[in-house]
Amino acid sequence: MKSSVTSDGHDLVVKATAPLWLRIGFWVSIAISVGVVVRRLIAILHPSQSGPAPLAALDAAFASHAALTMAHIVPAMAFVLLTPFVFLRRTQTAWAERGVTAYAMNSYSIGGWVERSAVLLFNSLFLFSLARAYVYMRRGEHLLKRRWMTRAVGILLGIATTRPVMGFFFATSRLTHLEPRQFFGIAFWIGFSINTIAVELWLRARGRQSQRERMAVHSQIKS
User: What is the pLDDT of residue 93?
Assistant: First the structure.
């Protein structure tokens, strides 16, 4: 971590580098998110009759609401593709999907009310985080804006974390006898919770470290 103090000794800028595990998770989540969208678009535009029955039934369910599905996943993928430019290049421009289509898609959720409750909660947290980021941006408080944007992106990329969880349920379905409608909601809760908790723990740890840096610099100034 690097710190710098202005000439008057009152302002401190702390630049922290994200840990390796978080950077790896960030890029893996982006890759999974884009892969999921591309695969879903192909399944809608060129449906396949082969493959496991549960997966074929899942594709058919999304294809029956093709317009709404595409209206939801295409803007979401655009936001995912923009996140590296927003965070790694430190630009001041940020674009985000409003999440309205996520509420609309809840009307035909595969996992029933368990999935609906997860989408309602985490999509609301996503929109709330975006709103807070916008407020702080208007106030010129860019550090706080970045914290809330980080929360929003963490929640958004939670959809990527749900995929390995779903894969686990698919792989063990012969033993558990669970169908997609039974484990989809559970996978949503697990995936989004992992991302939300991991990002929050990192932000809090970073905040404590930044505070220690500030105290150390101010003590040096006074001495």
Answer: 42
pTM over 0.90: no
Residue 51 CA to residue 43 CA, distance in Å, equals 12
For the chain, how long is the longest CA-to-CA vector?
75
CA dihedral (43, 44, 47, 53) positive or negative: positive
**Low-confidence residues in the chain, pLDDT < 70:** 1-18, 49-57, 61, 65, 68-69, 71-72, 75-76, 79, 84-108, 210-223
Range of the domain at 52: 19-97+109-214
Query: Could you give the number of structural domains in the chain?
Result: 1
Report if residue 220 sits inside a domain: no
**Rounded Cα distance, 116 and 185, in Å:** 7
The rounded Cα 10 to chain-centroid distance in angstroms is: 35
Q: Is residue 173 part of a domain?
A: yes
| 34-62 pLDDT tens trace | 887 787 788 877 777 666 666 666 777 67
Long-range contacts formed by 208-217: CB under 8 A, 24+ apart: 209/1, 209/16, 210/14, 210/16, 213/1, 213/3, 213/12, 213/14, 214/12, 214/14, 217/3, 217/5, 217/12
Across the chain, how many H-helices and E-strands are there? 9, 2
In a domain, 63, yes or no: yes
Bridge partner list, 15 = 2
Classify residue 222: in a domain, yes or no: no
